[in-house]
């Protein structure tokens, strides 16, 4: 037993469940029943106010009634609770709560970092807390556990001075949960504050450890650590960069912006303090806080969008189609100067975004289509997200685009051979965008892969059916998982002889504003489906971006052209 385990707070079998061991720091006893169901019918945890609905504590010990939760920490607490008790998404519930509490920019920044950092860091913080509490964390009241996690992040992730982190968290617990647990929380956080982050990390997850230790150290589920290791190898990257990738997942991403081609202006955004992106054309990086105040953002002509996403959409728009009579297009993916412009007599191109919601890539494709004289159909299965796509496309001239609300798997049957360029930005595990969705790593399971890869394959088959002869298909995921990327591509080529794979690395580099590091995949690293060379070697022509390498989401791109027979 480590030095710390015998100083754990709270004793098994203690009559007062959330009371710290040894009594030090205890500020009161629970006044309500010892254990009751503490969730209401909607899954919300309640500890105050209603009889028969969970543990109740006195709101505050008399001597401490004046100490209130500060609004920034209260917002973070409410959001973390909503994520855990109601399956809410932090990025959706945080902004309205920041507004409701009227937090100024500084406090809003603090609340955001506290919320997101706590949610990302739960793996490490729970391992630390488990060293400080003498019962399984699952036995703690969920609101108390969340308050401890918020305290741990302030102490170990935000370098808030220990006295401030403790006082403020204890005041929050006293106000929101009750005086009894506040003593317990105080005692546990004191134990946490006895070591800094490095010391705690070495204690709970030694650096020389296995993938399981890496999982704790970098606060990822172990199955995701293993999947990301496999993904790095499969995509030709260095497996030794795994810690850097995991660390990048834990950093708040800098805001990425794009000025829609022909519609938005980047220079006012740069004048407002944004930096030009080194790799995205007409793209900028902004660390100055609320993007809504930047010129063009409210009008939707400048949009918040990951630069990796931007590049994949631009690559699809730029690759040449093959013209009638052109049978030797090969893997040429260099952009044609006038790709997509209507020929003197021919009809304009028709583009399809098969899985368009919420509309980030559709907006960029719509703007590019408008410049090229092409039309865009943006399809989305969810009605709510289809409305978001319409909203995203509002700045694009109305004759250019239309939104289709329906299952993408039907489009191939409904409109065979109708589209010249198709984007399949498929629903995926999102393992490449973990930094953006702080709670998602804890919600996903390896079992999700089965359903998602099946859906991806069906959407791809539909897209192939909807592709015109000579037309181009882009398959994009925000996951580098081999099953969702290279293996999915191999299976697609296996099913469709008429597809010719294009060089996605070349296509991505051709549209980028600066050099991209896109390592070659050696055949021994490629995950195997075997089969003919065009299938077995399919990974070689795909492109994978990485957060730790390109400061983008881990976007995957594969490109195909429908052969003319
Ligand atoms: C990765 S997101 C697309 C992101 C989008 N391209 C963007 O840049 O904003 C995948 C989308 O596919 C949608 N989707 C899921 N199943 C679908 C289906 N069967 N047909 C069409 N869309 C589907 C989801 O609702 C989700 O909006």
TrEMBL record:
Q: Which EC class is this protein assigned? A: transferase
Active-site positions on this chain: 478 (nucleophile)
Give the signal peptide as a residue range, or say none if absent.
Answer: none
Q: What is its EC number?
A: 2.1.1.176
UniProt key word Magnesium? no
Keyword Secreted belongs to the record: no
Specify residue ranges for compositional bias: Low complexity.
55-64, 323-342
Location of the region described as Disordered in the Swiss-Prot/TrEMBL record? 1-70, 323-349
Q: Which UniProt keywords apply?
A: Methyltransferase, RNA-binding, S-adenosyl-L-methionine, Transferase
Q: Which domain of life is it from?
A: Bacteria
Q: What is this protein called?
A: 16S rRNA (Cytosine967-C5)-methyltransferase
From which organism does this entry originate? Micrococcus cohnii
